[in-house]
Amino acid sequence: MPYPNSLRSRFIITLSIMLVLVMGILVFILHQLMIPNLISEERQSAHVYANALQKGIDQNARALGDMAYQWASWISTREFMEGRLPDFPQTHITPAVFSDHDADMMVITNINDGVVWVAGRNPSNGRFTSCATPEGPCQWTIEQVRQIQRQLPMADTIPRIGITPGFALLSTWPIARQDTPVQSGKLTLVRFLPGQWQLDAENSASTLTLSATRQSTDIVNGETRVDIDSTSDDSLRLTLARDSATPGYQVLMTTRLDRQGLRNGIERFNLTMLGAMGLLLGLMMLMLWIFRAIVLRPIAELSRYAVALRQSPGEHLESPPPWLQARGDELGIMAREFQTLIRELNDRNAHLKALTNRDALTGLGNRRLLDRQLPRILSLTHRLDRPVALIMIDVDHFKLYNDFYGHPEGDQCLKTIAETLSDIFQRESDLVARIGGEEFVIVLPDFDLDRAMDIARGVCTAMEAQCLPHEPSPTHKYVTISAGVAISSPEHPLAGEALIKRADEALYQVKKSSRNAVGCASPG
């Protein structure tokens, strides 16, 4: 039913106006102006950087291509291919040549693409070898030579990156006189590239991660495709794709760019928003003043009351302020109902807590209480250098009793046993619990084995003295019990579960050999 002085409409109208104003300004500035411009600038910078990387790659390729062209154009190289300078490899193909020109391998082939000479630095050990065939000391070149031979018929003079057996920059030039198109062979220079290629771009070192994929149809021969992906808020993935010397494949060169520009732009945006928030502060203060009079003050009083109630759940607390309970709107009703609800919940929680720790039939502690209290009793008693005794009791032939007299009489029998145990064990430190159908446990701090055995025998005698008829029992005409005793001493302390298990084993031995008796577990 609507209240005569409802706060709902006033609160919703005021909050809606504030949210519309704030969210409208923020959404417009952020999504329509700032972020798109920042992303556009970031991608333009990434393309500029990609162009710088391409220039660096092209410079490396041109340097290798120029070196290959010079070697292929030498008269000495042509004379070697014509058989007129047989000592050419020994005099010209030396380790110093490879070191000076940053090349790793040279392959010279004839017009039939047969290998005439191969030389280079073994990437596995760095040694220089020079051979007429890729055998013996030059065995390490055989895979590279095979790939070069596959690529020679389709190769042009544009340096390219091969992908097998490893990444390498290749440049091939025909060996021929400048005044005639007749070739006597081809010369190929190879520079091995690591999977992580350090390349200088824009006066800074960049790491390109090399990978290979099948040839894409959108890459024109000799061109480079640039892909820019936003992998996270911190970096962009820049990928350069270009055709390789290996037919059917393209090389992907990937690096990551820090998005510092975007972060700086967002920081500038945040500073701008601080100014905008200053403009909104006046409006917020006016609205908060209205809220304080209508909503915030009563809510704050209820909040303080709830916090005090949580921090001191067991202590008596004053009711919410009278002026708040006297209000005729929703908050006044809330304050009155809040007080009633807390009182009812406390009563129910206290009742539930008692039920969770007590056996519903006998009123004794249950297994939950035993599991929680036994470790604490053991710890505290052993700290005082005293033992703890545990007696486990089982009603003899209780199933026969239930079958003969019926379950109501069986329940009454258990209640009588519980009353007897409660009369005997009245120390505050003693713990009596029912842990099963007809099983009971008694925990006795500061009891040694002899005293525990005596008290257990006394319990058996006291139970027999109740003279509860047990006609079907093969042991006695009255209801009797059997007991197992176990001790946890400071010298040989036991955990709670282990102590219960010891007493259960002692009880089992008693029931196995006789009934209406007491047995004990061996100490230690």
The fourth-level CATH homologous superfamily of the domain at 367-520 is Reverse transcriptase/Diguanylate cyclase domain
Give the % helix: 40-55%
State the helix count.
13
Residue runs with pLDDT of under 50 for 5 or more positions? none
Distance between the termini: 72 Å
What's the CATH class of the domain at 367-520, please? Alpha Beta
Beta percentage is: 15-25%
Going by helix content, strand content and strand pairing, the class is: alpha+beta
**Mean pLDDT reading:** 82
Q: What would you call the shape?
A: elongated
CATH topology (fold) name of the domain at 367-520: Alpha-Beta Plaits
What are the secondary-structure elements, in order, as H or E?
HHHHEEEHEEEEEEEEHHHHEHHEEHEHE
Rounded to the nearest angstrom, the radius of gyration is: 47 Å
Outline the biggest β-sheet.
6 strands, antiparallel
CATH-derived architecture of the domain at 367-520: 2-Layer Sandwich
**Total number of strands:** 16
Strand order of the largest sheet: 3-2-1-6-5-4
